[in-house]
Design a protein that fits this description.
The protein is of the alpha/beta class. It is built from 12 helices and 12 strands. The chain has 2 domains: 3-119 and 352-357, 2-Layer Sandwich (Enolase-like, domain 1), CATH 3.30.390.10; 124-340, TIM Barrel. Helix 1 crosses helix 2 (79-89) and helix 2 (79-89) packs antiparallel against helix 3 (97-118). The chain binds magnesium ion.
Length: 363
């Protein structure tokens, strides 16, 4: 059963409204690169990755120019073998970065294709543990003042969320404290509240912020500083007193190993669309299991839903604000804080090609 056809498409999709975080500023759109694989039996698998607005053309070029030649004719279901071939083929220019994004899109398509060949949903193929995940709302909301944040939080609770994340990292720590306090008071004592600084702070600033947020029972403190400073991350965890989440900017299994062993992160947060796909995401989940840690996710919740539903050490599923809901015909539904994984073959995501067509980027 070999792969006979690969197609790559690149889209620039508008957000419903401008969104702000502490490092990347104002977001107005994001890119999605979609890979379509077809096997000789006529089964089709789709995989995709996304960027926050830059890099998509290079990712599409890596797939088309460098990965396509080794994928055509490859055995469709020998995914570990194909993953290693991709990794070694681009090792010299890779070991993370854009290469991990390109490999992710292909690897997700390989797993989706296998799901169609075998007639199984991803979550069952990957372990079939719970079939669902607890979801939290991942706000990109640094621009909101406390009143606006409370309004957004009430809206998210009405939508069915039972856990909430907000951005922190404004110029004045006092403003962040006021925002965290307002949302905690709105939620009451029992709803988990996460905060995300998007790498804004130095180690000393982050320790100071963590100690201030501790008063409001923060469930995790996400990306307080750059992911590369493993020793600094460990100091923030030890001296700040909050569990640390990180992973959206870690693109290899080895970076996760160092973040857990040296950085002492409590919630590994791999993103299947940039860690090297489902194959490498599952390796991170098993690495976390061996350290008695629960795994969360970043972005593309319609995919991560399957992955968290498959494993025993799942934490919360992020429902990211860069959602594809408007561009897929069957987005997963939230019910009292829980999302159930679909029983369709593969990941089950069905793109709305009519909606996407207007946003395709000509290479
Ligand atoms: Mg984040």
């Amino acid at each position: 059963m070999v792969i006979r056809c690969i197609e790559t498409k690149h889209y620039r999709l508008p957000l419903s409204h401008p969104m702000t975080d502490a490092t990347h500023g104002v977001h107005t759109d994001f890119e999605v690169v979609i890979v379509r694989l077809e096997s000789e039996c006529g089964c089709v698998g789709y995989g995709y990755t996304y960027t926050i607005g830059r890099g998509g053309a290079a990712i599409a070029a890596l797939i088309e120019r460098d990965l396509k030649p080794l994928l055509i004719g490859a055995d469709a279901v020998r995914i570990e073998q194909t993953w290693e071939r991709m990794w070694r083929c681009l090792h010299y220019v890779g070991r993370g970065g854009l290469v991990s994004f390109a490999m992710s899109a292909v690897d997700i398509a390989l797993w989706d294709l296998r799901g169609h060949i075998e007639g199984q949903p991803l979550w069952k193929m990957l372990g079939g543990y719970s079939g669902g995940a607890r979801a939290y709302s991942g706000g990109i909301d640094l621009q909101l003042n406390p009143d606006e944040l409370v309004e957004q939080t009430r809206c998210n609770l009405r939508r069915g969320f039972r856990a909430i994340k907000i951005k922190v990292g404004r110029d004045k720590l006092s403003e962040d404290i006021a925002r965290v306090q307002a949302v905690r008071e709105c939620l009451g004592p029992d709803v988990p509240l996460m905060v995300d600084a998007n790498m804004r702070w130095s180690v000393e600033q982050a320790i100071r912020a963590a100690r201030a947020f501790g008063e409001y029972d923060v469930f995790w403190f996400e990306e307080p500083t750059i992911p590369d400073d493993y020793q600094g991350m460990a100091r923030i965890a030890a001296e700040g007193g909050l569990p640390i989440a990180a992973g959206e900017n870690l693109h290899t299994i080895f970076e996760f190993r160092h973040s857990i062993d040296i950085g002492k992160i409590a919630f590994p947060e791999p993103d299947v669309s940039n860690i090297g796909g489902i194959t490498n995401w599952m390796r991170v989940a098993k690495l976390a299991y061996a350290h008695n840690l629960q795994v969360t996710s970043h972005g593309v919740h319609e995919l991560h839903l399957h992955l968290l539903a498959a494993i025993p050490n799942a934490s919360y599923l992020e429902v990211h604000s860069f959602g594809l809901e408007r561009f897929i015909t069957n987005p997963p539904q939230l019910n009292d804080g829980i999302m159930r994984a679909p029983d369709l073959p593969g990941h089950g995501v069905e793109f709305d090609w009519d909606q996407l067509r207007d946003y395709e980027v000509a290479e």
